C-alpha cells in the first residue's frame, strides 16, 4: 500500500507486440499516517494534560464539625484518603468486642478489662459402698460401689480480655464514617474547581512531526 509503480512497454521492432502501460498508485503515504496520528493523539494529550493540571490545582479543606482538620489538600491525596478510610472502616468493624453477658471493669495493673470474681465449688468423686444384701451364713454381703461428689474446695475465677467495649467500637466507627463523609465532600468541592483547557498536543506533535 505504501509502494506504487508505473511502467511502459516498447517492443524491439516496430512490428513487435504493443502492450499497454501499467501503473499502481501509492495508496498510503507515511506523512499522511503521521498527520492522522497527530490529530488523533493531540486530543488525548490535551484532555490528559487538562485533567492532570487541574488535579495539581484542585484543592480543598477537610472539615469536621466546622473545624478544618486538614487544610488545602490536593484532590489526588483526597482520593488516597478515601481508599484508606474504606480499609480502616473494615478494620474497625472487625475489632473484638467484650462479651455483653459479662460485667467488665478496667484493670490498671494489666491494662485490660476484667470481670468480677466468681466463686465456684470444686468437688471430688469419692467412692462409697452400698450394701444391697447383708452377709449370711451361706452368702457374703452384696456390696455395690458408687461415687459421690463431695465438696473439697472453691475456685475463684476472674476473666480478662483485651477486647473493646461495644460503646468504644461504635464511637470509632462513627468517627471513621464522619471523616469519610468529610473527605468525600472535600473531593467534590475540589473537583468543582474551574478547569483551564490545556493545549499541549499541537506543541508536542508540531515539534515531533513538523
From TrEMBL:
Lineage: superkingdom: Bacteria
Alphabetical list of InterPro entries matching this protein: DUF7873
Positions of the UniProt region annotated as Disordered: 1-26
Protein name: Uncharacterized protein
Amino acid at each position: 500500500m505504501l509502494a506504487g509503480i508505473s511502467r511502459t512497454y516498447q517492443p524491439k521492432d516496430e512490428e513487435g507486440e504493443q502492450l499497454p502501460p501499467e501503473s499502481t498508485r501509492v495508496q498510503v503515504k507515511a506523512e499522511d499516517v503521521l498527520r492522522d496520528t497527530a490529530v488523533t493523539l493531540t486530543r488525548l494529550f490535551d484532555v490528559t494534560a487538562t485533567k492532570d493540571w487541574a488535579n495539581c490545582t484542585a484543592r480543598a479543606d477537610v472539615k469536621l464539625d466546622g473545624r478544618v482538620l486538614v487544610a488545602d489538600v490536593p484532590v489526588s491525596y483526597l482520593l488516597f484518603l478515601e481508599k484508606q478510610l474504606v480499609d480502616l472502616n473494615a478494620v474497625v468493624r472487625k475489632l473484638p468486642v467484650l462479651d455483653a453477658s459479662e460485667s467488665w471493669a478496667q484493670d490498671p495493673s494489666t491494662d485490660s478489662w476484667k470481670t468480677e470474681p466468681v466463686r465456684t465449688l470444686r468437688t471430688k468423686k469419692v467412692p462409697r459402698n452400698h450394701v444391697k444384701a447383708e452377709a449370711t451364713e451361706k452368702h457374703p454381703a452384696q456390696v455395690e460401689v458408687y461415687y459421690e461428689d463431695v465438696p473439697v474446695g472453691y475456685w475463684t475465677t476472674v476473666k480478662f480480655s483485651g477486647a473493646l467495649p461495644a460503646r468504644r467500637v461504635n464511637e470509632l466507627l462513627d468517627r471513621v464514617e464522619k471523616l469519610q463523609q468529610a473527605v468525600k465532600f472535600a473531593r467534590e468541592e475540589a473537583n468543582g474547581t474551574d478547569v483551564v483547557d490545556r493545549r499541549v498536543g499541537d506543541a508536542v506533535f508540531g515539534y515531533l512531526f513538523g
